[in-house]
Amino acid sequence: MASDTKKTEARRRRKRSTVGRKQSKLRARAGTPKFPIHPEKAQ
Question: Residue 2: which residues within 8 A CB-CB, separation 6 or more?
Fold first, then answer.
């Protein structure tokens, strides 16, 4: 069985990896403008 310290460290590592994930995804999506896929050719 794992020690209490190892369990605690694993919990903290798991939490640290997920903190702010939702907000950073929203910021990434909001910060990227929509580009036209097929823009009209310039003449």
Answer: 10
